[in-house]
Structure formats: structure tokens, C-alpha cells
Specification:
The N terminus is likely disordered. α2 packs parallel to α10, α4 packs across α5 and α5 runs parallel beside α6. The strands form three sheets. A six-stranded mixed β-sheet has the order 1-2-8-9-7-6, with helices on one face. Strands 3, 4, 5, 12 and 13 form a five-stranded parallel β-sheet that branches. It has a two-stranded antiparallel sheet with strand order 10-11. It has eleven helices and 13 strands. With 311 residues, the protein is α/β, with parallel strands linked by helices. The chain has a single domain, classed as Glycoside hydrolase/deacetylase (TIM Barrel). The chain is globular and about 50 Å long. 34% of the residues lie in helices and 16% in strands. It binds zinc ion. The site of zinc ion has 7 residues, from loops.
């Protein structure tokens, strides 16, 4: 058990100056014995690239619908059900996309509303963002939304108080803390396996970080997204197997647009530098996911938690 005190650095809002002590407790994992339940979770953050990456005020386009179809084609081919963390604005714009995911047996959870980073918000703004994130996806899905992943892993040391707001809004699980330092996000030396965060008021959130391969003092994200596009496939597979050997679940994420190599050519106002970086590895991404998924046991987050005795 650890009491984590966020270091005072890079304060971006008045509210973030409020110190929120969090109690961190490692979750007790029971190695899975039911072979019908998946050991690792395949999760998809459902958003429209231009709106989520370049202009938060841009409309949501039907590119997201077509790209989700590409994800579903790969999942169907592999016989895997996934957990879709849907952005609220996407759910609001295309509710039938969300209800169809539920009808096909996938899990639907929340990925913010606006895609603005959470560390840019004060408490009132965050409360509103999370309320809308939960309600819009629940309205579209017709199912309860209990898990959250922040846009761009935007819960950092400086805004860990966001965990308290997540609990207030009614979320029970979170996968927003990237458990190592990275260029744009992450908290150094954070627990790599599932753990409980208890906030000052006593509410408890199950935190489920994405997959990090740990070898001695070295840590390498094998978490999906850009890491899946950049790293050699054998490194990804070795990392995921190493996580399995360490007796913890691997949580992998991706975005629907990563399954589409052609989309970036449709944006005439986006610089070639951005499209080159964003497009790197997209051409082989669907094939790569389709190769990696059948080699390990993947499925919905809720089933993975049940497999490891956490639900
Ligand atoms: Zn996102």
C-alpha cells in the first residue's frame, strides 16, 4: 500500500493546486483457469482523427463509422470481441454505431466527450466533461457505462484529483494513467498491474493500465496504438508474452483510424510532416493486429477482469 503525493510541477489550473491524497493498493489477481475467458483485453478508443487530434471544434465525420467497420472485420476474422471506449461526441453523432457494437456482443465504455485533455480542465469543467461522456455513450449504447479511458492518457501527476471526479460521476474502472514516463504523458514508476485507487472520500476506482513490458529497470510500452505501428512485431509479441509470464493481463488499445492507410490523403490542409508521422505503420496495422490477436488470448475488458478474479 502506498500513499502517493503528486509532485508540485507544471500546474496548469487553479484547481490542480488542490492536493488529493490517493491510496494505492495492488489488486489481487487469481491466475485464470477458465479457458473460455480471455486473459488480455483488446480495447479501441473510438474517435475521428482530425477532430480528436487537430481541431476539437471540428465536426465528427462518418470516417469514424467506416473505420470502425475495418476494426470489426479484423475482430470477426480473429473471433475476438473487444471493448470500445467511445468518445461522447461520436456517440451523440452516430448513436446507431454504438448500439450496433453492443448488438454484436462487444463492450462499450467511455472515452471523454470533447477529446480535450483532462489536465486542461478545472473541477467544474471536468465534472461536466465526464458527465457528458458517460451519458452520451449510455444513451446510445443502452447499457451501463462503468469504465473510462481519458483522451491521450491525460491523467498526469498534476491532475490526479481527476480520479476523485471519475468516482463522483459513477465510474468504477479507469484506464487513463500511462504507468511510465513518456514524451507526452505518463506518471513515472506507477504500478503496471491492475490496482485500486481510493480517494479521500472513500470511493474506490479499479485502475487498469495499458500493457508495459518490464525487463529489469527497462520498461517498454507494448500497449497498441503507435507502439504497435512502430515496433517490430516480434518485439510486441515477446513483450505481451512476458506480461503473461508475469501473471498479469495485458491491456492493448488502438484507434479505428489506424486501420485506414488512405484517410490522411483526404486532408489537404494537414502538413506532410504530420501525415507522415500519423500515417507511419497504418498500411500494415490491420494485418499486424490480425496476426497478434490469435497468438494470445484476447477479449473484452469485463471478461478479462472476470478471468483474473477482479469482477
Ligand atoms: Zn483518444
Amino acid at each position: 500500500m502506498t500513499i502517493f503525493a503528486p509532485p508540485a510541477r507544471r500546474t496548469t489550473t487553479e484547481a490542480s493546486k488542490t492536493f488529493v491524497p490517493l491510496k494505492i493498493e495492488e489488486a489481487v489477481l487469481v491466475p485464470p483457469i477458465d479457458p473460455s475467458l480471455p486473459r488480455n483485453a483488446f480495447t479501441i478508443d473510438v474517435e475521428d482523427w482530425y477532430q480528436s487530434s487537430l481541431d476539437y471544434d471540428a465536426p465528427i465525420t462518418d470516417r469514424v463509422v467506416r473505420n470502425v467497420d475495418r476494426v470489426l472485420a479484423v475482430l470477426d476474422e480473429c473471433g475476438v470481441k473487444g471493448s470500445f471506449f467511445v468518445q461522447g461526441r461520436v456517440a451523440e453523432t452516430y448513436p446507431s454505431l454504438v448500439s450496433a457494437l453492443v448488438a454484436e456482443g462487444h463492450e462499450v465504455q467511455a472515452h471523454g466527450y470533447s477529446h480535450r485533455p483532462l489536465y486542461s480542465m478545472n473541477r467544474d469543467e471536468l465534472r461536466q466533461e465526464l458527465d457528458r461522456a458517460k451519458k452520451t455513450v449510455e444513451d446510445a449504447a443502452g447499457t451501463a457505462v462503468t469504465a473510462f479511458r481519458a483522451q491521450d492518457f491525460s491523467i498526469l501527476a498534476e491532475n490526479l484529483w481527476a480520479i476523485e471526479t471519475l468516482a463522483e460521476v459513477g465510474f468504477e474502472m479507469d484506464s487513463s494513467i500511462f504507468p511510465m514516463r513518456s514524451r507526452h504523458y505518463g506518471i513515472p514508476n506507477w504500478p503496471l498491474g491492475p490496482h485500486y485507487l481510493t480517494v479521500a472520500g472513500g470511493a474506490r476506482i479499479l485502475e487498469i493500465p495499458v500493457a508495459i513490458w518490464s525487463v529489469g529497470r527497462l520498461k517498454m510500452p507494448v500497449a497498441g496504438g503507435g507502439y504497435f505501428r512502430v515496433l517490430p512485431r516480434r518485439v510486441i509479441e515477446r513483450g505481451l508474452r512476458s506480461i503473461a509470464d508475469a501473471n498479469r493481463p495485458a491491456i492493448v488499445y488502438c484507434h479505428p483510424y489506424e486501420f485506414n492507410a488512405d484517410e490522411l490523403g483526404e486532408y489537404s490542409d494537414v502538413s506532410r510532416r504530420v501525415t507522415a508521422t500519423q500515417g507511419f505503420g497504418r498500411a500494415s496495422f490491420a494485418k499486424r493486429v490480425g496476426t497478434v490477436l490469435p497468438k494470445l488470448s484476447f477479449g473484452r475488458l469485463s471478461d478479462v477482469l472476470a478471468a483474473w478474479g477482479l469482477r
